[in-house]
Each structure stands twice: as C-alpha cells, then as structure tokens.
Amino acid sequence: MSEDAIGANLRKIRNGAGMSLSKAADLTGVSKAMLGQIERGESSPTIATLWKIAKGFHLPLSALIGELDAAQPDPAEPFKTVQFPGSIAVKIVFPFDPELGGETFRISLTPGQTHVSQPHECGVVEEVFVLTGDMEVLRDGDWVALGAGEGIRFQADQPHGYRGGAQGAEFLNMHHYPRHVGVVARG
Ligand code: MN
User: Fold this and answer.
1) Topology of domain 3-65, per CATH?
2) How far is the centre of ligand 1, averaged over its atoms, from the C-alpha of 41 (Å)?
3) Contacts 24+ apart (CB under 8 A), 66-71
C-alpha cells in the first residue's frame, strides 16, 4: 500500500482546514506523534486508525485512502487497491460523492479472516453485497451468513464486522453518511 498517498491526503486535509496536529489529535483520538508519522509516510496506519481519523474529521474513508492508479490508468477502475498489512484489502469502486452522501468499496477477505470495526459516526449505514465466495457479517451482535449474490444493510454506528467463509469472499461495501459528513470543520 502507499503510505505516502494516505499521508499526503491527511496533510492536505488538515492544512486546508488550518488545523494544528494537536487539534487533529484532540478530534480524532490519534496521537499527535502518530498523525505526524502518517503524514510523513513514516508509519503505515491501520484501517482502525484511519476510521478514527475519518470519524474525528467527519470525513468519508475515501477522502483518506483515495489514490489514483497512475501506473495503470483504467477509466473503469481508476483507484489503487489499499492492502492493509495483516488485514483487509480495500479498493474504491465509487469515491465519496457529497451530493449522494455515499461511497462504495470492494473488499477481499481470505478464508476465515475476521475484521471487526468500531462504530462509525452516528447515523452511518452500511450495506454489504457478496460478489464471490461466502462470508458472515456481524450485525447487532449476531453473525449473519451470506453467499454470493446476497446482501445486507445495517447500522454502522455500532460495532460490526466481516468474516470470510471457507473460500474467502469478495464483497461490495457501501457507506451512507449523514449530511454533515464530507466538510471538515475549520481548525
Ligand atoms: Mn464499517
């Protein structure tokens, strides 16, 4: 994955909002030192850390992980896949659109791989639609089994998760945000 692109996105957003690292740390619960390391490309953030930043800044995830794939330009799939070390791989299918308040990712799970997410901002709703393989989604405290061609919608402002079945899975993951998301408060 490219820490440089994530760091550059973060620095641009923070500077654009006129926000200090201290203020950013207060808003996100991510330490000033860690934020600085991410911005300088010295640290590879986990997806959990990126979600803390997104939540604190009221931003969609694609604002942080978006990186156009300049090496292999393909109008149908312009974004690079972000492989989080030891975790899931995330590719932007549709980046965040402020008019629609949504973004869509394609995520791969290896067999048995479990990823549990902390609650997103109040009001965030997710949908999962399985493309290949089978998987389970943690919704309201229960793991719900889904096969290819099946989908589920759930409140994502509470703990939720994804688990790959015996063959692993590829799925689409839609995020629907409340209206105020996508505009960073000035620091
Ligand atoms: Mn989530």
Assistant:
1) 434 Repressor (Amino-terminal Domain) (1.10.260)
2) 24
3) 66/5, 66/9, 66/92, 66/95, 67/2, 67/5, 67/6, 67/9
For residue 18, report the distance from its CA to the centre of ligand 1, in Å.
Answer: 28
The per-residue pLDDT for range 69-128, each reduced to its tens digit, is 677 777 777 888 899 988 999 999 999 998 899 999 999 999 999 999 999 999 999 999
CATH 2.60.120.10, applies to 81-176:
yes
Residues with CB under 5 A from ligand 1 (ion): 117, 156
Domain residue limits, the chain: 3-65, 81-176
Query: What is the 128 CA–ligand 1 centroid distance (Å)?
Result: 10
